[in-house]
Amino acid sequence: MAYKREEEKFKVIAKERVEILFGLAKTVAGESAKEYVKSALRIAKFCNLRLGKKKALFCGQCLTFFSSENSRVRLNPDKKRTEILCLNCGHKRFYGYGMEKNTDGGDERTEGTKERMDRKKEWTERKNGQKYNNYSKS
Ligand SMILES: [Zn+2]
C-alpha cells in the first residue's frame, strides 16, 4: 500500500467485509465457519484492522467459531474479566469487563460522548450563572 489515503479506503472496505464474514460464520456451523474466520483474519491482517470484541467470537488457537456447544463462558470477578474456554482445543480467551461497553459498535461510543458533552454544557452554564450572580452581588 503506497499511499495513506488509499490505505484508509482499503480499511473501510475491509471492515465491511470482515463484518459480513463473521455474520456468515454465525449462520453456518463447523469447518465452514472456520474458513470464514480464517478469511476474515487474513483481510484484517492485510489492512492492520483492529478486531476489538470480535476476538471473543472465535478461538485464537484453532479458529473455531464459538457457539454454546463448543465453548464455555465464565465471569471472573477477581480479575474483572470474561473467560471463554474453547472445548475443541482447551485454549482460553480473556477480555476485560470494560470491553463490553465500547467495542460492540461505533454508535454507542458516539452516544456516550454526546451525553458527556451535554453534561459539560450544563456544568459550564451553571458555573457561568454562579459567576454572574457573584458579580451582580458585589
Ligand atoms: Zn480452540
Characterise the protein shown here.
It comes from Candidatus Altarchaeum hamiconexum. This is RNase P component 4. The protein is an alpha+beta fold and 138 residues long. 55% of the residues lie in helices and 12% in strands. It has 4 helices and 3 strands, in the order ααβββαα. The protein has a 3-stranded antiparallel sheet with strand order 1-2-3, with no helix packed on it. α1 runs antiparallel to α2. The longest helix has 32 residues. The chain is flat, with a radius of gyration of 22 Å. The relative contact order is 0.09. About 6% of the residues have low confidence. Bound molecules: zinc ion (ZN).
> What is the general shape?
flat
- End-to-end separation in angstroms reads 65 Å
Strand content: 5-15%
Rounded Rg: 22 Å
In the sheet with the most strands, the strands line up as 1-2-3
Structural class: alpha+beta
If helices are DSSP runs of H or I spanning 4 or more residues, what is the number of helices? 4
Mean pLDDT: 81
Q: What is the β-strand count?
A: 3
Helix content: 55-70%
Q: Which molecules other than protein and nucleic acid are bound?
A: zinc ion
Low-confidence runs of at least 5 consecutive residues? 103-110
For the sheet with most strands, the description reads: 3 strands, antiparallel
Task: Summarize the topology.
Layout: H1 4-27, H2 31-46, E1 71-76, E2 81-86, E3 92-96, H3 99-102, H4 106-137
Helix pairs in contact: 1-2
Bound molecules: zinc ion (ZN).
Zinc ion binds at residues 59, 61-62, 64, 86, 88-89, 91.
